[in-house]
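Thread: Newbie trying to understand structure tokens

Hi all, I'm a second-year student working on a class project, and my supervisor (Dr. K.) asked me to get a predicted structure for one chain before our next meeting. I've only ever worked with sequences, so writing a 3D structure as a token string is new to me. If someone could post the tokens and maybe explain what I'm looking at, I'd be very grateful. Here's the chain:
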Amino acid sequence: MDQVEQLELRRQQVSDYRSSGKTVVTWCSENNIKVSTLRYWLNKFKYEAKVDDAGQEAFIEFKQQEPAVKEIPLIVKIGAVSIELYPGFDAETLREAIAAIRSL
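---
Reply by user tm_fold:
Sure, no problem. This is what the structure looks like when written as tokens:
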């Protein structure tokens, strides 16, 4: 099994666990998976977008009010993601957004 297949298998297992409503210990026992393994993958995927019932990806949107005066933003690029920062941005929200992006 290659890495892509392994990752998809783990994603499916995490999804199955989350939708089961069972405790970690019960689900792992029934599915012959170590508790530590499931906890690792739960942690790894915790920032990934969840798929809702309609099959569409949910996402986190960080909104900022439009500045009264058009100002040139500071643009921070992390991989393929760009974040525009205007004066008065919330530093804590930026830290959370960067942590979420890095975990993907």
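A couple of things are worth pointing out once you decode it. The longest strand covers residues 74-78. Residues 3-20 form the longest helix (18 residues). Feel free to ask follow-ups in this thread.
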